[in-house]
Structures are given as C-alpha cells and as structure tokens.
Amino acid sequence: MSRLSVVFGGSRGIGRAVAGLLAQRGQRVVVISRNQEAAQATAVALPGAEHVALSCDVSKEQEVQKTFEAIQKNYGTVGYLVNAAGINRDGLLLRTRPDDIASVLHTNLLGSMLTCRAALRSMLGKGGAIVNIGSVVGLKGNAGQCAYSASKAGLEGFTRSLAKEVASRNVRVNLVAPGFIRTDMTAGLQEEVGGGGAQTRIPLGRFGEPEEVAKAVLFLLESPYITGQVLLVDGGLQLAM
Ligand code: NDP
C-alpha cells in the first residue's frame, strides 16, 4: 500500500491548494479540518480516487491521537504531513482576551506539535517529510498580531529543533512562511494589521495565491536533501518590513 499525504487545514485556502497538488502527483490525500462536510467536499473534488476526509480539531490532543490511530488502522501509514490548520484573532495585545491568545497558540503552535508527534510514529521506521506553515510575521513581527506572530515564531523554532531530532531517521521537517495570501483568513483583514494598504507594501505588488504557496510546500516535501529550512513565499514582503 502506498503511503498517505495528510493535510491538516486541507478543506480551504492554502491547505486545499496543497491537497490539490499532492493529488495531481498521484498521492492519496487525507484532508482534515474541524468541519467534516467541508473536508469531504474538498476530498471528493481532488483528482484521482479514494481520497479521505476526516474531522479533527488540532488543538485537542485526544482528537489528534484518535485521528492518527484511525488513519493507521483504516488507510495506511503517513509519508507526508502538512500542517496548514491555523487561525488568527488579530488586535492590539491590550485589547486581546487571554482566551483568544490561548486559542491561537493552541491551534497554530501546539496543534502542529501534536500532529507531528502523532505522525512520527508512522514515519520513524520508514522516513517521511513534514512541512509546517508559518508566516512572515513570525520572522518580522506585526503590530496587532502578537499572539499570531508568537505562534508562528514558535513554529520556526519547533521546526528546526524537530528537524535535528529526526534527521537520523530520514524524516525531514521544513517550514513555509507565506506573506499575504488570498484566502478566507485575509478576506477580513483588519486595518491595524495591514489590511487595506498591505498591497502597496509588497514588492511584487499583489497578494499571493494559495497555489503559489502550495508549490513551495510540494518542493520541500519532495526535496530529499533539505531539512530545517524556512522558505518565505511573500512576494518580497520581508524586504519591506
Ligand atoms: P483558511 O482560514 O483559509 O483555512 C484554514 C484551514 O484550517 C481550514 O481548513 C480550517 O478548517 C482549518 N482549521 C482551523 N482551525 C482548525 C483546528 N483547530 N483544527 C483543524 N483544522 C482547523 O486559512 P489559510 O489557508 O489562509 O491559512 C492556512 C495556514 O497558512 C494557516 O496556518 C495560516 O496561519 C497560514 N498563513 C496564511 C496566510 C494568509 O495570508 N492567508 C499568511 C501566512 C500564513 P475548519 O475551520 O473547518 O477547521
């Protein structure tokens, strides 16, 4: 049985674009989000047959554990893992509720750590590749995004550390850090985090498309001699921040 590609946050946006490219490559994809119907709708629209849709909240350890047990039991072992599940709760720190800070950290940082931890059980014997989705604001910071940028900066440190831990077992771990990408997440971007004027600050002069990020994710998944790297896909935004 060939090995699976598991995409958290695969129902929409960047994750859906990644799932699409993987399916085009002939991979069998497991599309995961909290909303089962949305994951199902994405999975059935992918090219190729027998893709899988599952519901799981990445911030909940037991759900993540059960999801990987179900994958292993019913569908096979995991070869690729992509962590594209993420949320934002933007606002200046003084106006952000501690509950919202916790939700962002639990989903974006803890969630990816939990899925990696669970997937490694499948990968350590046979090798594998993981791509986490960070953000340019994890490197540069952004007013109005303290929790979000902290979660993404944390993902970078986590990615490099895990890459060191598992390299000897032929598991590679990399991070793609997008800038502003046209998805549901940026549709309602607040002015104070760069909405409105954001486009004029991007050297390439436009928001990116999910497919443009997906290409970088696929490149890292398929590059057997790259690990512990951070790849910016931001239209040059980091040069202007
Ligand atoms: P979208 O809002 O379009 O999609 C987010 C995806 O994550 C959905 O599939 C959503 O499904 C899923 N998701 C959210 N919370 C959870 C959860 N707790 N458990 C499981 N799945 C969850 O976002 P994008 O595609 O824009 O973002 C994808 C990733 O890229 C995120 O990590 C984001 O931070 C990052 N990113 C995005 C940028 C952008 O400009 N769009 C820029 C930089 C980074 P559901 O709600 O059903 O769970």
Could you give a short description of this structure?
With 241 residues, this protein is an alpha/beta fold.
Domain module tally? 1
User: Which percent bin holds the helix content?
Assistant: 40-55%
| CATH evolutionary superfamily | NAD(P)-binding Rossmann-like Domain
Can you list the strand order of the major beta sheet? 3-2-1-4-5-6-7
> What's the count of strands?
7
By CATH, the topology is: Rossmann fold
How much of the sequence lies in strands comes to 15-25%
| Biggest beta-sheet profile | 7 strands, parallel
Describe the overall structure.
The chain has 241 residues and is an alpha/beta fold. The protein has a single domain, classed as NAD(P)-binding Rossmann-like Domain (Rossmann fold), CATH 3.40.50. The protein has 10 helices and 7 strands. The chain has a 7-stranded parallel β-sheet, with helices on both faces. Helix 1 crosses helix 9, helix 3 runs parallel beside helix 4 and helix 4 packs parallel to helix 6. The mean pLDDT is 95. Bound molecules: NADPH dihydro-nicotinamide-adenine-dinucleotide phosphate. NADPH dihydro-nicotinamide-adenine-dinucleotide phosphate binds next to helix 1, helix 4 and helix 7.
Short descriptors:
alpha/beta, binds NADPH dihydro-nicotinamide-adenine-dinucleotide phosphate, globular, seven-stranded parallel beta sheet, 46% helix, Rossmann fold, 241 residues, 10 helices
